Amino acid sequence: MENSICVITSVRNCLVETAEYLESLKRFPPKNLSEQIIIDDGSEEETQKFLLSIKEEYTLYRNRESMGFAYANNLGAAKAGADWLLFMNNDLVLSRGWSDSFNSLILDRESNKNLGCVGNIQLDPDTRKIDHAGVVFSNGIPEHFCKGKQVAPANYLSEYLAVTGACFLIKRELFLYVGGFDESYKTGFEDIDLCLRLSMLGYKNVVLNQSVVLHKKSSTPERNQFQSHNSRVFYGRWGKVITRFQEWENAKRKLENCPENKKTKVLHAFEYVLNRKESFLFADRKILLEYFNLYLKQKNFPFAERILSILVDRYDFDEKTIFCKARFFAAKEKYSEAKIILEGFLKENPKNVEVLLLLSSAYQKEGVFKVALERLNQAKKIEPYKSRVFLGISKCKQSMGKMEEASKYAHLSTLLNPDFSPGWKVLGTIYRKKKNYRKELIILEILLQKEPKDSKTIGRLLEVYHALKRPEKIWSIYRRCHKQIKTEKHLMLCAQAGYQVGDFQRCNFIVQAILNENPQHPKANMISGNLSVGSKEFAKAVSFYQKACDILPDSWEALSNLVNSKSFLCDWSDRKAELDQLKIHAKEMLGKAGAFEVPGLQMNEAEESDHAYARSHFLLERTKPIREKLDFSYSGNKGDKKRIGFLSPDFRNHAVGHQMIGLLNNLDSEKYEVFLFATSPKDDCKVRKRFAGYGENFRDISGLSLVAKANFINKTFLDLLIDLGGYSRGHNAELLALRPSARQAHFLGYASTMGKGIVDYNIADRIVIPTSSSKYFGEKVIRMEGCFFPPGEFEGFAPRVKRKGVGLPPRGFVFCAFHAAYKLEPGIWASWMRILKAVPESVLWLKFKPGKDGMKNLRSEAIRQGISSKRIILADDLSERKDHLSRMTVADLYLDCPKYNGHASAMDALHA
Question: CA-CA distance, 212 to 151, in Å (whole number)?
Answer without folding.
Answer: 11
